[in-house]
Amino acid sequence: MDLDVSKKATTETRTVPNKTGKMGSRVSDAGKKLCGTNYPISICFIVVNEFCERFSYYGMKALLTLYFITYLHWDKDLSTAVYHAFSGLCYFTPVLGAIIADSWLGKYKTIIYLSIIYVIGHVVKSVGAIPTVGNTDVHIALSIVGLILIAFGTGGIKPCVAAFGGDQFDEEHVRERQKFFSIFYMSINAGSLLSTVITPILRGDVQCFGDDCYALAFGVPAALMIVALVVFIAGSGLYKRTPPQGNILLEVCNCIGFAIKRRFNRSKHEPQRKHWLDWAEEKYSKCLIQEIKMVLRVLVLYIPLPMFWALFDQQGSRWTIQATRMNMALVRMMNALLILLFVPIFDLIIYPLVGLCGIKITPLRKMAAGMIFAALAFGAAALVEVNVVKTVVDPAPAQNYLLQVFNLARNEVTVDINGANVYPEPIHYLMVTRWEEGKMLFILSSTLPLQASSPILNIYITINKETHECYDMVKERNAYSLIVTQNATGIQCKLVSVPQKWPFFCSLSVASGRYPDVSFTLNSNKYSGLDLGLLDFGASYTVILNKMEDVKANNVHIGWQIPQYVLITAGEVLFSITGLEFSYSQAPANMKSVLQAGWLLTVAFGNVIVLIVAEGAGLDQWIEFLLFACLLLGVCIIFSIMACFYKYVDPDQLDKIYLADSAIEDYDEVNMKKKDIQLQEEGNSTKL
Which residue stretches belong to region Disordered (predicted)? Predict the structure, then answer.
């Protein structure tokens, strides 16, 4: 579910090399232990902090796409683009957080300060969801500012919290530290699972300001983030804190930059080097250069990986939009639930069975299989989408409105809108023109300014060769029903606005009038304004309400989304967890932070891919799903070819290589110092 931590990935990231390549010192004061164990008490505060923080993040994110569509009234493409822009920013900022923690403030202060920014972002986001606070522009501004602050907060602390938890253990307690990361990973998914269940309930089942309560649904995650900060600060007296010792990521970037500069500015007489990084030997240690070479071999394999995340992260955007057009609640929580089930199933059952079949299981093969499962998930999503679009009418886009005609006159009628023969065929008595026939979308006159909120609609109705004219007002993005009736005085028309919540919710529209009316109740909401005409004294009336379906009910069951969630979660287990373990096992201990930053950047670039496709492609949704599936299959082929040329590094040999290189450098350094002393003594003797 989350990419913050691997069970094995970050267990050795507490030491960094100084400029000479030697391992930095570490704070060794032991913290208080839980009774009878080697577990520090401080980890309890860290685990609770992570649970609350993940609850706040995923609880807010579970509603984000719906908030854009139903509250800010953005179309699905813009909502998808902003959602993935936010997700991408959340995975670009960890690099900034790592630099701040390692080079300036240390992990503890970085978590504190960025968590405060995180809380402020949640509060601003919640205030932006209060309808009485300003107009739509104010709501949009507050929402965007809040999301930016949240992105910097959650991304900044992402590389710090897990490593800070590992810092609490003594070096010899490796097994306890590994169990801590398992508990830490479970707390992440538990927080995600609960939040994706609770926050949609708060939005839909609680009414505030006369509508869905987004302010409360965003406010609860804000409160949980405040709790996370308070809990973390409460344990401050128990933490073991490693002071900042220089950022290895910056050291790596500087070394690569120096090598490139020397490579292109070299003298013609200088001999060639075996590897372009060897040009950095004049300034940087051979040990550091060798480690960077190992890391770059893994980073090259990362190049195709963003395409997987481009598919995976659409669970919160395109798949959420698809779910809202089906006939049950969202199933966003399924991924968190399935990941808790699938991890032990794969480890204890599937992997051993595959091994018994004589198939060699390697990390890169598992990652390639994960890509295939993700592609199959989007193939399943495309099949579901084809069936969903048959019964759902999308809201009108900007500068458009929707209109359907109910003919209650006793003869055929023809309807012209603003002088245009939009309905060429006569409309029979009691016949309803349907939106899905493609006759309902009208582009407003090109001479009408976009800022005009209520353009005049000229309606010409012809019956028995006589034309009658009606006037009414329409607004862009709205949907209307035109009801045509006939009495002794002639043709009458009534334009009724269809409630904006469709197609996501059940809705009812009624015509209002200036005569005595009746009131009725629907779903605990009282309605009035049904036009009965003039009621005479002494007469007896029977009112017959004829229910006409404006939009067909959502009849595609949400259960059809289960296969795509099962497939994408299986892909996550094979790809995400395996990828973290692989990348960390293939690099020296002090380079794991570099690879973590590279791994998180693949997620960021995956969201950038969705951002480009959502805004630029303009494809039907099912075609877009198939496009992503085909692209990932193509990338999987490329990745598999690259994997064939990759030579695995034995993790046990990495430390030996490191120690051997360090010993050689130390020996060379000692010899250089001896030579300097000898030359200095010879110089002094000459002077005497």
Answer: 1-24
pTM across the whole model = 0.67
Q: From the DSSP assignment, how many helices (H) and strands (E) are in the chain?
A: 19, 11
Identify which has the larger pLDDT, 244 or 554: 244
The token duo for 310 is: 């481009």
In angstroms, the CA 176 to CA 171 distance is: 10
Give the gyration radius of the chain's Cα atoms.
Answer: 32
Q: What 3-state class would DSSP assign to 580?
A: helix
- C-alpha angle with apex 308: 307 to 311, nearest 5 degrees? 90
The reply to whether 285-390+557-675 shares the fold of 42-246 is yes
Q: How confident is the model at residue 677 (pLDDT cuts 50, 70, 90)?
A: low
Token pair recorded at residue 511: 């015509």
User: 3-class secondary structure for 289-328?
Assistant: HHHHHHHHHHHHHHCCCHHHHHHHHHHHCHHHHHHHCCCC
Sequence ranges of the domains in the chain: 42-246, 285-390+557-675, 400-531
Tokens of 209: 């300001």
Per-residue pLDDT band at 521 (split at 50, 70, 90): very low
Kindly tell me if the per-residue pLDDT of 569 is higher than 70.
yes
Which amino acid belongs to residue 153? Answer: G
Class of domain 42-246: mainly alpha
Q: Pick the closest to residue 110 from 121, 96, 120 (CA basis).
A: 96
Residue 474 burial by Cβ neighbours in a 10 Å radius (0-12, 13-18, 19+):
buried
342-357 pLDDT, tens digit each? 888 888 899 889 888 8
Least confident of 123-137, 139-153, 308-322, 489-503: 489-503
**Residue 654 scores a pLDDT above 60:** no
Beta strands in 546-587, from DSSP E residues, in sequence order: none
For domain 285-390+557-675, give the CATH number: 1.20.1250.20
CB under 8 Å, gap of 24 or more: what pairs does 75-83 form?
75/395, 75/397, 75/398, 76/321, 76/394, 77/614, 77/615, 77/618, 78/615, 79/317, 79/321, 80/314, 80/317, 80/318, 80/321, 80/610, 80/614, 81/611, 81/614, 81/615, 83/316, 83/317
Q: Between residues 347 and 583, which one has the greater pLDDT?
A: 347
Please write down the HEC assignment for all residues of 85-145.
Answer: HHHHHHHHHHHHHHHHHHHHHHHHHHHHHHHHHHHHHHHHHHHCCCCCCCCHHHHHHHHHH
